[in-house]
Amino acid sequence: MLSQILYALPFLAKGFAITLWVSLLVVVLSLIAGVLLGVGLVYGPAPLRWAVRIFSDTIRGIPILVLMFFVYYGLPAAGLHLQSFWAAVLALTLFKTAQVVEYVRGAVASIPKGQSEAAMAIGLTFRQRLTSVIFPQAFRRFLPPWINGVTDAVKGSALVSLLGITDLMQAINQVIGRTYEAMPLYILGALIYFSVNYALSYASRRLERRFAFIRD
Amino acid sequence: MATSSTPALLDIAEVSKSFGQVAVLRSVSLQVAKGEVVTIIGPSGSGKTTLLRCVNFLESYDGGSIRIDGKEVGYRDAGTRQRRSERDLAAMRAETGMVFQSFNLFPHLTAAGNIMLGLTKVRGKSSAEARAIAEHWLGRVGLAHKADSLPAELSGGQQQRVGIARAVAMEPKILLLDEITSALDPELVGEVLAVVRSLAEDGMTMVMVTHEMAFARDASTRIVFMADGGVSAVGPPKEVLAAETTNERLRTFLARFRASHF
Ligand SMILES: Nc1ncnc2c1ncn2[C@@H]1O[C@H](COP(=O)(O)OP(=O)(O)OP(=O)(O)O)[C@@H](O)[C@H]1O
Ligand SMILES: [Mg+2]
């Protein structure tokens, strides 16, 4: 049994690499899109605010699995053909972006009004108030939920296996199909996902402390 | 006092302002000459804070005009009420300092950093120059040793002194102070008022709202009593705070005030 699993390790490692690659793409792309849209939601002109609000509410109201199938099977009908890998990344990114938008909105909204007023009172322009006063503070509020969301993204990436992509989850299923050693492999898989997320949580606690308003 | 021969540094003329249906300022007029310390007193909701906020255009106003050094605040001109550009507004606000009841220090910046922000971003100083100015003002408010402390590491009184230093380091033409000791424990009020007093002695023009009557009496050149969104009485402290005033509202206010504070 052990030898069979050892034999499958390189295959599992490849799956793990895909999992990390999908997660990384989703996390980075959704961070960029989510921050831009989130700032648009708070400070943008009315039409942009409505558009982002509708986008975010819609996406967050759809199960992520439905979103993925919609992108993979539905978009070709609209003339957009994506490889399963990119369809999965796009769906997960849309989903994550909607969350990041809300983190950004929440973080900015949590900064007391007195902060921008104090910044106004010393003569900072709108842009300076954002970059020097609001964003540095909002960043600290944004960090904890966002990092939580990163671990969700790693876990959620397992869904791409449903589009036939050989990520860690899919690799495990395939090895089980060949070896019939379900429990050991699922435990191994759980350990790997857990390790990644544990490392992320640890890093996040370090980050949060690094940016606290009080020094240790 | 402002007379026709010495044009007022701050000229508030018939300013009115409503929040929705509620008239908060009703044709308020007040002139403040350079070097004056004017204290505004009055019951809660009489419009004191709103008036101060209009002076640096944290709040817009609906009618009348506010001028600092002859320049219309907030609007390109009082007639058309066309709002100034964002850049213009920022430049104008840099000429008035404001100290807040809740301090509103930037929590992510040190005491020195709080003071340096406006100096570097608005006044265009190098960070070395800004640091030197920040240290000078921190020294003036007795906090030379706290330059690198974060606001969360300071007491309320120390935070408010940084707040004052942040405002005056910009060398504003006029300093606005809104109940700056109201959020402080009683034993910390004195250290903050001492700083205000020393600024007054240096000739800083100030308009302040306070409930510290003894301080207002000693430190002010004039006291303004506001009621119902209007100026109900104005004059030298001794006149306005006289117990035998004929102004009915003022007498009630003072009586109630004495009953609750002494
Ligand atoms: N942003 C706002 N929106 C609506 N109403 C407001 C707003 N700010 C103030 N008001 C109202 O305007 C009136 C004057 O308020 P203001 O804060 O100027 O009074 P104040 O004299 O400073 O009172 P206090 O002594 O309690 O600080 C009050 O009735 C208040 O409820
Ligand atoms: Mg007030």
Low-confidence segments of chain B, ≥5 residues, pLDDT <50? Answer: none
Structural class of chain B: alpha/beta
Q: Span from first to last CA of chain A? A: 50 Å
Main pleated-sheet profile of chain B: 6 strands, mixed
CATH H level, superfamily name of chain A: MetI-like
Give the overall pLDDT of chain A as a whole number: 91
Strand content of chain B: 15-25%
> Which chains have the largest interface?
A-B, 22 and 31 residues
Structural domain tally of chain A: 1
Please report the number of helical segments of chain A: 8
Strand content of chain A: under 5%
Radius of gyration of chain B: 18 Å
Ligands bound, unique = adenosine-5'-triphosphate, magnesium ion
DSSP helix count of chain B?
9
CATH architecture of chain A: Orthogonal Bundle
What level of helicity do the residues of chain A show? over 70%
Low-confidence stretches of chain A: none
What is the CA-CA span between the terminal residues of chain B? 31 Å
Main β-sheet description of chain A: none
Task: Please describe what this structure looks like.
The complex is a heterodimer of chains A (216) and B (262). Chain A is an all-alpha fold. Chain A has one domain: MetI-like (MetI-like fold, Orthogonal Bundle), CATH 1.10.3720.10. Helix content of chain A is 81%, strand content 0%. Chain B has 9 helices and 10 strands. In chain B, the strands form 2 sheets. Chain B has a 6-stranded mixed sheet, sandwiched between helices. Chain B has a 4-stranded antiparallel sheet with strand order 2-1-4-5, with helices on one face. In chain B, strand 4 and strand 5 form a beta hairpin. In chain B, helix 4 packs across helix 5. The mean pLDDT of chain B is 92. Classes of the chains: A mainly alpha (216), B alpha/beta (262). Bound molecules: adenosine-5'-triphosphate and magnesium ion. The site of adenosine-5'-triphosphate (ATP) has 10 residues of chain B, from helix 1.
